[in-house]
Structure formats: C-alpha cells, structure tokens
Design a protein that fits this description.
230 residues, Spore Coat Polysaccharide Biosynthesis Protein SpsA, Chain A, seven-stranded mixed beta sheet
C-alpha cells in the first residue's frame, strides 16, 4: 500500500528539508512525497529544487500565492498513492505519528482519519489560550452542522483513502479547506476516526501564518458548505 504525503509550502526555508527528512525516517511503508510550493519568496524554492528527486518524489510550483487549500487540491490531483495524508511544512506536526494515523485505514476499518491535538496526545507545547479556544469553538460549530463528534476539526493531520478524497470537489484556496472538507465528508456514508497526536506549536515570531481573519473565513465555510453547498 502506497502513501502519498502532500506538503503545502510557503516561505518555510528553515524547516522544509527538516520535515522531509523526518518523513523519510518513517520507513514502514511505501510513500511518495509531494511538495507544492505556493510561490515562496524566501529560499524555499532553491532548497526544494536541490532535494527534488533525491528526497522529494514530486515538486510542484504555483505561479502565484494561492493558499494552503489550493496546494492541497493540486497535490491530491497528482497523488498516486492508495492513501493521501496532509503534512504541514513546519515542524508543528511530527511524522512519528503516521503509524497510528494510518493504522485504521490500512486495516480497513476507516475511510478517513483526523488527528487531534486535544485527545490522548503524547506531548503538546503550551501556547495561545484564545487560539485554542477558537479552534474548539469552530470544531463545536462544525459538529453541530455535521453531526460528527470531532475534537479538532482544524488539525492539519488528515488521512484519506485516495478513492474517497479524489471524488470530492474542493473549492477553498486558503485555510477554509478544513471546514469545507469536513462538511463534504460528513455528507457521505464514511467511516471517520480521530487519533490523538503530539503537537509542537510555534509562535507568530517563529513563522505561524494563520490569523483571526482565517478564523472568520472558517466560520463562513462552516455555514456555506453545510447549509448551502453539497
């Protein structure tokens, strides 16, 4: 069984090769690493070109900055694996968690697996209270409309059977991907699991990019994709 790991990347010169190396250390399964660079303006592109073919299976460049959701959609289109997993380009999420995230799908009792920073995590960096509260509020609101009982809808780590995610038309270009895909998955008869993960969050000084504006956009997406769009 082949795993396609999609990494959206925007201005992550300090971490992109490090996260790729961490992924390569997970040698329990066949994998392809797909990096989609979102028109980085730092040295990310130079680093990616240097390791293309050696450490990265596929490298895609956007002609302008579109956003995380666009990069994920592009990665999904180019993925050839049986399972597709989303990985951020920073070091907040640790590939050592891949085994437990993928286990329910590999053993065919799940179609989709979400990671969660709020249940059974091995270790978690203590950071922003309001950011955490915002995530929990958005997850609660999403659950109200989807009738799922997720604890962390906004978590980066999501794994899908390829045949499932490739059939879903994704429209959001930025961080609205999370509530959009959750709403669309919930409308299908799928087996969805959630797994506790470790989380090494970073500050805005460290390069964290999501802001309150993305929270407002997530709220919009929850309403639109649950109430008005299939």
């Amino acid at each position: 069984m082949k795993i396609s790991i999609i990494i959206p990347c925007f201005n992550e010169e300090n971490t992109i090769e490090k996260i790729v190396d961490k992924i390569l250390n997970q040698d329990q399964f066949e994998k392809e690493i797909i990096v989609v660079d979102d028109n980085s303006s730092d040295n990310s592109r130079q680093i990616l070109n240097k390791i293309k073919g050696k450490k990265i299976s596929k490298l895609l460049f956007n002609e302008k900055n579109f956003g995380k959701g666009y990069c994920i959609s592009k990665g999904i289109e180019n993925a050839e694996g049986d399972i597709i997993l989303i990985q951020d380009a920073d070091l907040e999420y640790d590939p050592k968690d891949y085994n437990k995230i993928l286990f329910p799908i590999i053993n065919d009792y799940a179609d989709v697996v979400y990671g969660s920073r709020f249940i059974n995590s091995d270790e978690k960096r203590v950071l922003f209270f309001w950011h955490s509260l915002g995530n929990k509020f958005l997850t609660l609101l999403s659950n109200i409309f989807t009738n799922l009982n997720l604890t962390d809808m906004e978590c980066c780590y999501k794994a899908f059977k390829s045949e499932v995610i490739k059939k879903i038309k994704l429209e959001e270009n930025r961080f609205g991907f999370e509530p959009e895909v959750t709403a669309k998955l919930a409308k299908k008869n799928l087996r969805i699991y959630e797994i506790g993960i470790s989380y090494h969050g970073r500050t805005y000084k460290d390069g964290k990019k999501i802001t309150w504006k993305d929270g407002v956009s997530a709220l919009r997406c929850i309403l639109i994709y649950n109430l008005f769009k299939n």
